Amino acid sequence: xxxxxxxxxxxxGQEVTVQALKVLDAVKIKYNLDITYQxxxxxxxxxxxxxxxxxxxxxxxxxxxxxxxxxxxxGPQWDGPDKKVRPEQGLLAIRKYLRLFANLRPVKCWPxxxxxxxxxxxxxxxxxxxxxxxxxxxxxxxAKGKKTVDGESKVYDTIEYSAEExxxxxxxxxxxxxxxxxxxxxxxxxxxxxxxRLWRKIVEEEKTNYPAIDLNHLYVDxxxxxxxxxxxxxxxLVTENTFGDILSDQxxxxxGSLGMLPSASIGEGSxxxxxxHGSAPDIAGxxxxxxxxxxxxxxxxxxxxxxxxxxxxxxxxxxxxxxxxGLRTADIWTQGSTSVGxxxxxxxxxxxxx
Length: 354
Ligand code: NAD
Hints:
With 354 residues, this protein is an alpha/beta fold. It folds into 2 domains: 1-109 and 258-354, Isopropylmalate Dehydrogenase (3-Layer(aba) Sandwich), CATH 3.40.718; 128-253, Isopropylmalate Dehydrogenase. The chain is built from 12 helices and 14 strands. It starts with a strand and ends with a helix. The relative contact order is 0.17. Nicotinamide-adenine-dinucleotide binds next to helix 1 and helix 4.
């Protein structure tokens, strides 16, 4: 029995999660999956009910689950300088609680949406890449402080990585490349940084365990440029926390819309699956949100946590079919396509699953 914790959160998080679960229900029947789910609170709605964005009850639920499906958190009612407890603290807390050290962000250029990209068509055709970002180390978690040098005050952040921290994320990248086009690009700044030199050494060591995978190294500045010039060259990119944060947002533009981008965060225990987008208060409650990012997050869960590639591919194929049919939520709408809402889009995906 596979136990899934469902945390819809706030705003459109609620709407897209409901629809993604309907798709999962259809997959469950079609592939005879033994899966149960239980819903919990996170973010703003959790603050309203308990005062805590990641309440004890939700902690207990995720601890007992094999995976977590999250919608999104946040909203203007919880913003403001006077608010001490914020929904986004719930996200940081769950990531820490589950010790999620790898963030996976696939970016695909859907041929049906290619006209909407700010990039020239010929540059992005065939883009299908996965960014594997280290999530719990580097500058965001290293020692920081203030000191006085020659009477002048200075501040510093330090980048720290242990060999073990690097090895575990690099293994994730090689393993995932094995299920894809078998190519890993490791991104660093080994011409300048000691942490990058250790990073590169560990990548080379691990490569010996993966003879079928092609490996190349790129400096981060060159990688940023290559993502614009020739993004179709990439399969799996693996990099440290800060570089990954920046590159994954840069790469997300290639996907056309936030509403099309799923993600996964994995650690030693249960993994967390969530669309990249936020709670979109501007369109919440209007049946306007694109549910495909949440649905594609379910596909990632089927592939990674449930090891069911056939079911994952079926969901991805169904998404491809509805785009082919010309169905579009507002964020991906173009002249001549058929405008649909959140629930109609998800229903079409279920129909396409057959
Ligand atoms: P956002 O991602 O919520 O929205 C940005 C823009 O994209 C909006 O115009 C929105 O309408 C549109 N959009 C987003 N997802 C869409 C979808 N599925 N379909 C159609 N359009 C979509 O980012 P924001 O406006 O900066 O933040 C809103 C709230 O969400 C804030 O409280 C923020 O803190 C929170 N947030 C949460 C997460 C998360 O839960 N992981 C991520 C980002 C932002």
